[in-house]
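QUALITY CONTROL LOG
STEP: pairwise intake check
CHECKER ROLE: data steward
CRITERIA: each record must contain a sequence immediately followed by its structure tokens, with no blank fields

ENTRY 1 OF 2
RESULT FIELD BELOW
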Amino acid sequence: MNTLTKLALGLMGQVRPRPARGASAPHRVLLPPTQDGGMPLMEALRKRQSQREFATDALTEQQLSDLLWAAGGINRPAPGGRTVPSAMNAQELCLYVALPQGLFRYEPGTHALERLSASDVRAVTGYQDFVDLAALDLMYVADHARMALVPAARREAYAFAAAGAAAQNVYLVCASAGLATVVRAWFDRDALSGAMGLGN
């Protein structure tokens, strides 16, 4: 579906998830993330870029594991520290993963995916046509209820900063692994929230 069609359907409230394709367990434990090797940091920074053309091939299990760990996994088990900074350690970001097999939430504590819906919501994650068939879409959702120590007027800004850090981690892993990625913010908030079963 092209961008103009998606825009028109969005204005009519007609952008909808599709049925999931392929089987997936409700609870999917991921492979341990690769925490050594890879491309040197400065080289990854040099190669970091936004790309809008994606192969439709599924990621390998290791690529999926590494991406999700980089986007918000636990890197210091004793204190439960994460790969992404969070003001006052609120850990407000929830990472959702849209795959052809359904919608999942990443659980950092167990490094696993929990299936939330047997719907393919990729078409609802943005107006651009390339999102429909990307191997996966990541959605960063801030739970403001976790931010009790953060002044209410600052919560959105702090959550944006955390989401930006998570996205940059994903960019660096993609640069190292030779994968394409792009950050997007052009989507129908109400349609996506509804497809994901989120409150307002």
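ENTRY 2 OF 2
RESULT FIELD BELOW
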Amino acid sequence: MTEPALVPLSPRVAVTSGTFDPITLGHEDVIRRAAPRFERLIVAVAAAHHKTTLLPLAQRLALVREVLADCPNVEARPFDGLIVDFCRAHGAGTIVRGLRHGTDLDYEAPMATLNARLAPGVETVFLLPQPQLQCISSTLVREIARLGGDVSALVSAPVAQALRAISAARG
């Protein structure tokens, strides 16, 4: 496998990554609040070979693009591999991560430390979603949708519509 092309890192370019299966209002909140702090914010949507996703990668990318279409400096791109390699390939000097609670911090802090060792020019910053959104996770949204529950208070309208369509197709 060839090394990704390296682009000079800029602290004004940031990446936030995840599977976004699906993108929730909590994700949107963190992305929308991070966006004005950077010239460019790339939403790196993981291929997620390590787990089975409800939504295929192309649909997850399309939904991220649709719900964030009003954020001109935000773009969504697929990614696979190490996030620091993705950052280097896109010149991103910052990784933005959302934290809902202490458990997220326990998971994210060691990753941030290792990412800093792998790519010393890339810094991780953490943002909390608004308090009313901190209880939302993609896992819970998927479970509620699978059981036929209403997820419209947890995700944007296009995401709720996509989840309803999947639920209806499953019968």
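INTAKE CHECK: passed for both entries
DESCRIPTIVE NOTE, ENTRY 2: The mean pLDDT is 94.
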